[in-house]
Design a protein that fits this description.
About 0% of the residues lie in helices and about 50% in strands. The protein has about 120 residues and is an all-beta fold. About 30% of the residues are buried. It is globular and about 40 Å long. The protein has strands at about 5, 10-15, 20-25, 35-40, 45-50, 60, 70-75, 80-85, 90-100, 110, 115-120. It is built from no helices and 11 strands.
Length: about 120
């Protein structure tokens, strides 16, 4: 079992940056692919980005490509989402998740509790 805890969310002005962290428990984090998702009020959960277990491969949806960067440090059992050029429409609760599946879309096996990101105009 893997427990995930996100941090780094907060309030930022449009155009600003935040870096989210996803701390994983256990020694098996390095064997899982990782993804970031978000859910805005009244909207469905949205997939944003994913990274392979080794960190060698990444994939982004178009809405965040070029602005967000997913990364991981397996030695620290931690994943990251660097978010630049933030827009008000990026306001949401952000979740990290891990998957054993080699498929980018999952299924994702374990989820964090989420961290709120609010972008003001």
């Amino acid at each position: 079992q893997v427990q995930l805890v996100e941090s780094g969310g907060g309030l930022v002005q449009a155009g600003g940056s935040l870096r989210l962290s996803c701390a994983a428990s256990g020694r098996t984090f390095s064997t899982y692919g990782m993804g970031w998702f978000r859910q805005a009020p009244g909207k469905e959960r949205e997939f944003l980005a994913t990274i392979s277990w080794s960190g060698s491969s990444t994939y982004y949806v178009d809405s965040v490509k070029g602005r967000f960067t997913i990364s991981r440090d397996n030695a620290k059992n931690t994943g990251y989402l660097q978010m630049n050029s933030l827009k008000t429409e990026d306001t949401a609760v952000y979740y990290c998740a891990v998957r054993k599946s080699l498929n980018w879309v999952g299924p994702y096996d374990y989820w964090g509790q989420g961290t709120q990101v609010t972008v003001s105009s």
